[in-house]
Structures are given as structure tokens and as C-alpha cells.
Amino acid sequence: MKIDIQRRQIGLNFKDGNAELRIWAPLAWQVLVLSGGTSLHLEKEDRGYWFLQTNKIQPGDQYQLKIVTQESGIEPVLRPDPATLNQPAGLTGPSKALDLAYAWTDAAWQCPDPEKFIIYELHTGTFSHKGDFKGIAEKLDHMLALGITAIELMPVAQFPGGRNWGYDGVFPFAVQESYGGAKGLQELVDSCHSKGIAVILDVVYNHFGPEGNHFADFGPYFTDKYHTPWGQAINFDDAQSDGVRSFFIENCLMWFRDFHIDALRLDAVHAIRDFSAVHFLEELRQYTDQLSASTNKTFYLIAEVDLNNNRYINPFETGGYGMHAQWMDEFHHTLRVAAGGERIGYYSDFNGVDHLAKSYRDAYVYDGWYSPHREKTFGRPALNNPGKQFVVFSQNHDQVGNRMLGERSSSLYRFELLKVMAGAVFCSPYLPLIFMGEEWAETRPFQFFTSHTDPGLIEAVREGRKAEFSAFQGEQEPTDPQSLATFEASKLDWNKVGTGKHQLMLQYYRQLISLRKNSPVLSKLDRSGLKAIALADQNCLI
Amino acid sequence: MKIDIQRRQIGLNFKDGNAELRIWAPLAWQVLVLSGGTSLHLEKEDRGYWFLQTNKIQPGDQYQLKIVTQESGIEPVLRPDPATLNQPAGLTGPSKALDLAYAWTDAAWQCPDPEKFIIYELHTGTFSHKGDFKGIAEKLDHMLALGITAIELMPVAQFPGGRNWGYDGVFPFAVQESYGGAKGLQELVDSCHSKGIAVILDVVYNHFGPEGNHFADFGPYFTDKYHTPWGQAINFDDAQSDGVRSFFIENCLMWFRDFHIDALRLDAVHAIRDFSAVHFLEELRQYTDQLSASTNKTFYLIAEVDLNNNRYINPFETGGYGMHAQWMDEFHHTLRVAAGGERIGYYSDFNGVDHLAKSYRDAYVYDGWYSPHREKTFGRPALNNPGKQFVVFSQNHDQVGNRMLGERSSSLYRFELLKVMAGAVFCSPYLPLIFMGEEWAETRPFQFFTSHTDPGLIEAVREGRKAEFSAFQGEQEPTDPQSLATFEASKLDWNKVGTGKHQLMLQYYRQLISLRKNSPVLSKLDRSGLKAIALADQNCLI
Questions:
Q1: CB A119 within 8 A of CB A206
Q2: Are residues A312 and A294 in the same domain?
Q3: Contacts of A225 in chain B (CB under 8 A)
Q4: Cα(B396)–Cα(B401) distance, rounded to whole angstroms?
């Protein structure tokens, strides 16, 4: 199997009326596809791939894979396609064959340079009452009026049940059915482009969700070389890792090519443990560039990375992995401390305006300093990286939702202080990101919610959540992640938008964004002329 | 504790008649030093260090450290100093205070540029009948006549017993007592420099030996983030790793500053697992450069690394870790296959002259190719790295000694073929290294030997060795590593040197080296004008 940027090579594709199915299953002795009562053998290719061309599977048909191992006494297992595009009956049911062809109307669309990004992060399930892509499409005029140039969708890969942040997704190629599936996402992207809005998609390449993950039946997707917060690491550099790397490279190319996504936000890439000579992210950028060149559209890669190592965002020429930009949590942390927030956990490393001034000047706060919280010297300077390589925010899904009660800044800080915090973000020489509802000071929480089906897992997540917050609980209990009420309580309340202080805040955000866009001193993200001076005794930054 | 390139800050030092003792023991509640019947408390400093200045310890005195933990019911342990310079009674006995001051006579010495290196790798214990540094010093005229410009000592850090390759060393700062200790090494280096020979020392920063390793009593020297062939990895990037990194940086500086070592050969740096923003090797190079600048002597770092990733040897400006050079095993592997050697294990990846031609041209053979043996795509091109960044050989301690019977090439290949193999090394655009005795086609083996004291470990090593070779054994048994006879059999037989074919081979090597040194086409290691053409059907390389 050789990656072809023009066309997906793994999973199920349609070509000239035939279905082509390619599965990476180096551990299998035989691989069969079961569909509509028939059972067909796949043929073995090089390096663990299995292939079948057939006219017996048509778009809309369901299919399952039968993995037969050579060891006697082991019953063959029936599994969904790891690269399935659709799981109509959930994670463990059959896969459904889809033809991703779509009548795009966005031929004229060109994604703006990231320097122009005003990013709006949203969670599809709780953004609108409908909780799906259509619910987002209906609000695009709200985005336009606000001045947003790019929406960022939290992960949409198929997850267990109907309620999940998206980081428990198991099938990276399947768009969550309850959100509207593949076609629904294509329609949303087309709509966004017709209104001049770019679409960033959050993807998770560092782990698979805990439920419905049977990838180990197919091949060495995991390695015990490393430990991660999620257990065994995904195999990016051990024997047979080519198959795993190709799986995710194909995924990335699919979003750009077949869904017209403009940029990917790569979740927690520090958990992608790779000592290969060519880092996975570097390879991802190489393929992304090939696709950009062949389509005349530029696609972008934005990494969430927590290492203060500009190797991730440096260009290839200086030994970098070539990510176009990265999230910068430190700006958030020190901004919150400056605003009077708690100084526990990772916040304990930050002192407020002094560090905020450093972040304005140097991007990373810890760029070779000793970090008491991490108990080690941390980071390296990123002085020559332009401002457009850093995404900053005063809140995001994690910083809100990982609080015990999921309180937004609007429940924690005075109204006037919210404005100052927004000002700090929009006056920064970095790419601003706001979290849905922030623009009208939404007071509803954004809590951690799941809809797992495995009772043991449900209980483990519940207990894990309690343990995590045991030190802070006092009289309060964390909300139950599995409860429908937790999800419902986290939905935005659009009825507030036009009322009282909420309307005021929305006006403020609109004007702030407009100011940012129209004044060259704020919209040119060149840090070289910037001076940031902290007056710590007045908690003030000039 | 702040590293001072002028003076060692950890372990025991003498300054103005006082002893200064600094111990990194972040896990301790109290640290005491016991010496000559007295017991003194060390004072706590920042970040886990403990310090004492005292006139109660003099050079030659023995001392032990008492580590008291706060947990009740745990008996305090008595341990040697992790940075001990001398262990007169073995690994678990007391440490001995040494003053490293030495009356150097090599003020005029300047190490030549590595481009001039003709390297002679030797194992102190088996190189001479004496088995110590004096035994080496007596043979320096042999080296000079041969044309050697640098000797490379296999590790000399204190190991269990008197017989060991050196990779089971536990105390990186203590020179093996049976070799002649610290003073013996200083004398050897001084002699070498007086004869114009540079000294390269092999150091092991990727693991500690299995016997006498009680470092975990002091602090988090280990992390379970990674697994290595030796179990838990040394902690180069986890919490409190600063103390571990400083330990090894101090070690490196000591060899250069206090022993006048010219270059370090860093053992298996691919097992130094470090995802920090500043890689440990990069930091090591920074300190090495500081010391070079302050002494007006240039010190070099040569890495053994098995990743075909030129990031290790690239300069800082292009995102490299700045190692001056690296070992290149692939050249050896494909040379051996070209010579008709077995094609099992890692040799299976190499086809002989075709790959040898590639190695001549491109250094790495697998530079982005799929490696069947590793089952993954491996390496990246190193086209712009000059030839002087690669050390090549037709045999070395590993390639000889890791065979079941430790046979040298002289027992495996025809005499004329040995000459061809040497020619291949000395005509390469890389730094040539020969393994002791190779120059006279020594026929004695170089076997794996140990002198552990722990019976369980002795048995485990024995069984491990048997298991390793079980597939190849046939009627033969691997030699017993723990047996004195195995060690004795591995000693060079200097009586051969002037006799028969051995004398012929020595003459050949002398002429080959002289040719290399005197013909600009061989001594300029610029690969840009090089052409290597393989004629596979004639097993011939032009």
C-alpha cells in the first residue's frame, strides 16, 4: 500500500462502480468481509495489507470484517472496519459503506492565511438546541456578525453513545452519526465556505477511546515502549508502525480532500511518542503539503502541544516538524492568575502580569526556566517564531470543562474583568480563540459528559472524576458525567443572547474583534516591535 | 547547585584544605557522611542537594553516606557516594576521597581535528598482559609506528569485580581500581599526549550496571515513562530530571577538565530517552563548548546511535543535538555481508556491495527505506553531513564479542579478504576505527566476560547468553562469561606480532594507514566528489 494523496487507500472506497476494500491486519491469517449474507476473502498484499475489489458491496450496504488467526482454538472475531466511515448501530455494530463524493459549491474558496484567524471553538452536541451540524449552520450569521473567520469543531469521530466531548472517539474516519454523519459535515463545511468562514477540525491521533477499541485484533496499533496517561501508547515508531502512521496520514488527507476542512487541530501531540528519524508530524506535514500543491488550496496543521519546544512549529529547514501553529496554554494560565484566579495545580507556576508580559513578548513563559510544578527545567525560547504560530484564549473546552463544576469565566470573574481578559486575548500578537458562548458571557456550565455503554467503564469514569477533585470538593460533588442532565445543562442558552448584560458583552466582543481586524497594529502579528511591561504592584500590563 | 565548568560541584572535592561534599538526594530527610568514626550532617540546599564543608575528611580517607528517610520503620541505609571517585573495596564498600589535582605535562597539546583521527579501540583489561593503564602506555610506540592518532578506551568506570567489558559500570566518576584508578588514567593520558596521541573514552549514560546500583535510594534516577533493554530508563525528562542530567554533565566535564580526555564516545544514546525541549545531548554539547572556550582546547562528543537520524550530529542551527560524530554500524554490516559473512539477524537487511556503495555515498544505508529486519521505514538522509562525522570499522568490540564464540574476522575470513576489508575502511571518506589486535590479525577471540559477585546474577547472565545463541549453537556451547578462562583467552597475544602472517598484516596496516594519511584524496573527508559504483555480479565496488 502506497499512500496516494488523490484517493484514500484504506477502508472502503468506490471506484468505477466497484467497491475497493483495503484492511491493514498484519496479525491475521485470513481476512473476510461479510455483507448481505455473502462472505468474501480479501487477498494478502505486502506489509500486512489485505485487499478486495468487488461489485457485491454498494453504497449504503453494511459490512463486517472477519479476522481469522492461525492459532488453533481461537474463534475468528467479527469487527467493524478500523477505517469505517459510518457506524449506524454504534461502535461494535457493522460498518456502512459510504461514497464520499459530494457536489461541492466552494470551488472559489481559499482559506485565509492563519494570521487572519479569529477562531470560535465549539462542541457540536451542546452548541445548538439541535446538537448537530445543522444547528451550527443556522448560526453562521451570528458568527459573521461577531467577526469570526474560522470555527473549530471539537472532535467528531464516532464515539460511544450520543454524548461525548469527542476525545473518546474510536473510529477516526467515521463522522458521529448523531451529529449528521459524513454528509452533514460536508454540508456544514460547504456552508461555512460560502459565508467566508474557515473550518478547523479537532482530531485525536494520540489515543483511542476506552470503549469499542478492538484495533489490537488487527495489528500492532500499540506499543509498550512508552506509557501515556491513557495506558499503552499508539505505535508510531516500533516494529510495523508504518501501518499505524499511514492510518492517521490517510485520516488527515481525508479531512482536507474529501471534507474540505481547512485546518486540523491535532490533540495533545506530546502524547504521540515517536523517536523515529522522521517524526510522524513531519511526515504528516509532508503529505499535507503535497495535497496543498496538488489542489492549489492551502491546508494547515495546528498542534496542541505542552512541551514549550518550538521544534514542533519550526520549519523543516531548521530541524522542525513543520506544524503551522500550536496552542499556547501558558498564556491562558498566567492570564487567569492575573485575573485573580486560583493558583493551584499547574496554575501554581504562574504569577500573573509579570508572566503575562513574558508571554506577550516571548510566547512561552517557561522557555528554559525551572518549573516548580513540573519539578524540572522546562522549555526553550521561541523568539523567532511569528505570532501567528500561537493560538491563545482566556478559556477553552478544557479549561472550562475540566473544572469540577465546569464553570465558565462568566461565573468566576466580574463582568468588567471578563472584558479585560477578552481584551488581553484580542490585543495579543497571537491568534485569538474564543469558546462558544463566551461572546455573550454564557453562564451555563460546560461540563464533562459521556454516554458510555459499558457499566464498568461508566463507574470507573465517575469514580475517576470524584478522585480527581477529591482535594477541592468541600461540600460539593462533581457532576455525574454519564447523566443526561449534565449534558443538557451544558447546552448554550441562545435565549440570553439578546438580553441585558449578555447583549452588552456580545456588542463588546463584536467591537473588539472589529478593532483587531481593522487596526494594523493589532492585526499584524509581528512580535518584533512589541513591548510588554508589567507593573506587578498595580497588577497592570502596558 | 549550579554547574561550574571550572570545578566539579557534586561528590567530594578539595578546596583550600577543606573537603566539600555535595550529594543529590531529593528523597532523603537527612543525609550524613560517616568517615573515620565521625558522623557529620549535610545541610539541605535547593532542589534536593545536600552540602557539607569540612576539614575532617582528607585525601585518602574513606567515607560512606547515610540516607535517612522520613518514613518511620525504614532503617537508614549506608551507601557509597553516587559520584565517588574511588571504591577501594568494590561497589558496595566505602568511597575514598581523592584529590584529582595532577601535574600535567601536556600544556602544549592540542587535539587534532577529528578528520585526522585514526582510531584504535581497546579494552584495558585484555589489551596487555598487565591488563591496566600501564600496559597500554608501554605499547604507545606500537601505536605510533602503526599510524594511530587516537586510542579509544572501552569504559573504565568502576564495575563489579576485575573482569568486565565496562558496560556494567555503576559509578561513572570512579576509575576502575584494577586498571590503575584515577591517577593511572591521568598518567596514561599525559603519556599519550606527549606522543601526539589523542584519547577517546567510552562512557555509558544510558543505564547503570545490574550490580551495586542503589541510586534509587537517593532520588528519582529512573522513570517508568519508558522501557529500555535494561529495564527502567534513566530519568532524563521526567520530574526532578535536572539532578540526573547534571550528574552526567558533571561526569562529562570531569573527563575533559580533570583527565584531559579529548573526546567521549557516548554509548548507545538512542537509549537516552528524552522528550525535553532541550535534549540532554544538546545540553551536554553546550557545556562542552563552554569548557572548550574557557580552556582553549577543543573537546569532542562522538555518539553511538542506531537511529539513522542525523538530528544527533547536526549543528544547533539546523535543529541538531550537535554531536561531533557518530558510529556507523551499517557500514560494518554491509561490508561483512559483502565479504561473505552470515546474513542472519540485523545482517539480513544488507546485500553486500550494493549497500556498501550506498554507505560510501550517503553514509546511512537505510535513509528512508523500509527495513525488513526492523519491520518499518527507517532513517533519513544525511547527505550534507561531512565524512568526518562518521566512524566506520570492519570489526569492533561489539561485533566480535557479541558472537557466541567471540571470533575475530581473522578466524572467519581468508587472509586476503581481511586486507580487502581493511582497505574498504581506510579508503572510505569516514573516520576509520580498528579494534585492538586487528592490525596483526590476532586469532585469539574477544569474548564476553564478567566477574559479578551476585550468584543469581551470574546464573542469569550465563543463561541469558545461552538463550541468545540457542538458535545457532549446534554442537557448541557459548563460553561461560563468568569464567576466568574466558577472560584470559581474550587477551591479546603480543608474541604473534613479529611472526609470519601476523607480521605481514601489521606491515599492510602500517602502509595502508600511511597511504591514507599522505594521499589527499583519502585524507580529505569531503564526500562531494565521491562516486561509488557497485558491480554486484562481480561482488565488486569501484
A1: no
A2: yes
A3: 226-227
A4: 8
Chain A residues touching chain B at CB-CB below 8 Å:
47, 224-227, 237-242, 270, 273, 275-278, 307-311, 314, 317-320, 368, 370, 374-380
As a whole number of angstroms, the distance between CA B341 and CA B343 comes to 7
Can you tell me the distance from the alpha carbon of B80 to that of B177, in angstroms, rounded to the nearest whole number? 15
Residue A128 resides in a domain: yes
Distance from CA of A311 to the nearest CA of B (A): 7
Residues A84, A214 within the same domain: no
CA dihedral A528, A327, B225, A334 (to 10 degrees): 70
Contacts of A310 in chain B (CB under 8 A): 277
Give the domain CATH number at B412: 3.20.20.80
B153 found inside a domain: yes
Which chain A residues are Cβ-neighbours of B382 within 8 angstroms? none
Q: Spell out which chain B residues touch chain A, with contact meaning CB-CB distance below 8 angstroms.
A: 47, 224-227, 237-242, 270, 273, 275-278, 307-311, 314, 317-320, 368, 370, 374-380
- Least confident stretch, A224-228, A329-333, A515-519: A224-228
Amino acid at site A314: N
Strands B540-541 and B325-327: unpaired
Domain count across chain A: 3
- Please indicate, yes or no, whether residues A80 and A24 belong to a single structural domain of this protein: yes
Instruction: Name the stretches of chain B with pLDDT < 70.
Output: 471-475, 536, 538-539
A277 to B309: CB separation less than 8 angstroms, yes or no = yes
Task: Give me the sign of the Cα torsion angle B388, B393, B397, B403.
Answer: positive
Q: Do A222 and A82 belong together in one domain?
A: no
A519 and A376 within one domain: yes
Write out the residue range of the structural domain in which residue A316 sits: 115-450+482-541
Reported as type and span, the H/E element at residue A281 is helix A280-295
Using CA coordinates, name the residue in chain B closest to A374: B239
Contact A319 B311 (CB under 8 A): yes
What is the spatial distance between Cα B345 and Cα B463, in angstroms, rounded to a whole number?
20
Minimal C-alpha gap between A107 and chain B (Å): 36
- Report d(CA B12, CA B7) in Å as an integer: 11
B318 to A320: CB separation less than 8 angstroms, yes or no? no
Please tell me the distance from the alpha carbon of residue A499 to that of residue A480, in angstroms, as a whole number: 31
Quote the pLDDT of residue B97. Answer: 97
The reply to whether residue B370 touches residue A226, judged by beta carbons under 8 angstroms, is no
Same domain for A64 and A137 = no
- ipTM of the shown complex: 0.94
In the block, residue with C-alpha cell 484492511:
A23
| Residues of B whose CB is below 8 A from A370 | 47, 242
User: A103 lies in a domain?
Assistant: no
Yes or no, beta carbons of B277 and A380 under 8 Å apart: yes
Instruction: Specify whether the CB–CB gap between B281 and A275 falls below 8 A.
Output: no
Cross-strand pairs, B390: B326
Residues A336-361 have a mean pLDDT of: 91
CB–CB of A214/B351 below 8 Å? no
For residue A295, give Cα distances in angstroms to A210, A251, A259, B110: 36, 17, 13, 57
Q: What is the CATH number of the domain that holds A58?
A: 2.60.40.10
Claim to verify: residue A338 and residue A368 sit in the same structural domain: yes
A297 and A443 fall within a common domain: yes
Distance from CA of A28 to the nearest CA of B (A): 16
Does A3 map to a domain? no
Return the minimum-mean-pLDDT range out of A1-15, A491-505, A522-536. Answer: A522-536
Per residue in A281-299, pLDDT (tens digit) is 999 999 999 999 999 999 9
